Amino acid sequence: MIGLAAGIEMADMAWEVKCREEDMKQRALENERHAIDDARRSVDEKAQQLKVLANQSALIAGFSMVVLVESQIPENINSVVLTFFGLIVAITIALMLVSTLNSTYILVAILRYDCVERSVPFDVFWRRRCETDWKVALRAFSVGVPSFMIVVALVAWVSFWNHQSLYYSASVVTAISLMLTIYWFANTHRKWGDFLLMSEARILTRGMSFAAASKSGSSEGDDSSVDLRDSLQLSSLAIGELSESEMKLKK
């Protein structure tokens, strides 16, 4: 009887060991699948960003080229106005081409990333090979937008040069272009420019917000909360709406 009980116990232990090993293999397989999915999601996210930037830059570059080719240049136009018009159009096209070409090349590069093997993690690959060119493309687009608005204002002066109401008509177009440029710098670019340049802004915000929540939960009397906006130099959006929503999810 004792030998039979010992045999049954050893069989149970062997069965538990076998089940544990199979469970570990299954978990390792699931972790590998999750890692592949995460890599594919990261590649897809960056690809969508690059496609949007490349398409918008190419669109503005095309508009600028059409303006340069199709504009009816009066023979008696002031040489200074004509030279400035050609200069700004060329600058706009050059900036948008830089943004388009950088985005296109980066897009091709990340689509060749092997999400299965992952010899180099995608975030490391992005920081080492792509992030600098991404920032150049985004800055070129940010400067090219107000440059395009200057082109719109100059087109009005060139097109209405021989018209009797030159100053009234061209001044209206110039004023609208100027207001839009001011709005671009005062609101859109100031709000989103730095945030979009920080590729890891959301990841940093999530980690810091959860860390801040755990600290506040563990020591309520400790008033050592750090201003994340100053320490990480993130935009108000990155440490505002995102952290508040993630704090709610954490709770």
Describe the structure.
With about 250 residues, the chain is mostly helical. Helices cover about 85% and strands about 0% of the residues. The protein is rod-shaped. The two termini are about 55 Å apart.
Q: Any idea what the radius of gyration is? A: 29 Å
- Assign a percent range to the helix content: over 70%
How many strands in all? 0
Distance between the termini: 56 Å
Q: Quick one: overall form?
A: rod-shaped
Question: What is the residue-averaged pLDDT?
Answer: 79
| Structural classification | mainly alpha
Put simply, the count of helices is: 8
List the defining traits of the structure above.
single chain; 251 residues; mainly alpha; 8 helices; rod-shaped; disordered C terminus
SSE inventory with pairings:
Elements: H1 2-70, H2 79-111, H3 122-159, H4 166-197, H5 201-218, H6 228-232, H7 236-239, H8 241-250
Quick synopsis:
Helix content is 83%, strand content 0%. It has 251 residues and is mainly alpha-helical.
